[in-house]
Amino acid sequence: MVAIGITAFYIVNLFGSKFMAKIQNYLSVILIAGLLLLGIFGVLNGLPDSLDITQEGYFLGGTDGFYQAVMVLMPSVYAASNDLSTVLPCYIVLCGYLFLSVFAGFRLLKYQDVK
Questions:
Q1: Which DSSP symbol is given to 50?
Q2: Which residue among 28, 33, 103, 113 is least crowded, i.e. fewest CB within 10 A of its CB?
Q3: What pTM was estimated for this model as a whole?
Q4: Collapsed DSSP state (helix, strand, coil) of residue 90
C-alpha cells in the first residue's frame, strides 16, 4: 500500500508544480471535510464523563505523559519559525503558564465540593 502511495506521488510530481498545486487543493478540501466530520460526530457521540478531570484515574500514570505530549509540539513550533531564538522564550513562557495553571487547577479542585 505504501508503494502505491509513493508511486502516485512520483507520477503527480512528473506533471509539474501547477498540477501538484491543484492536487494539493483537492487534498486540502478532503482533509478539512474529514476533520469537520470527525469533529461533528465526535461532539454528537462523545461521552461527557470522559472529560471530567475530577474523576479518579483520569491521569492514571500521573501527569508525566501529558507533559511529554505537550513537549512533542516543540519541533513543529521550531519548524514554523526556523529561528529558535524567537521561539524558545515564548515556548518557555507557555510551558510555564501551562504547568502553573494545571498545578493550580488541581490544587483548587482538591478544595472544591464537586459531585
A1: G
A2: 113
A3: 0.42
A4: helix
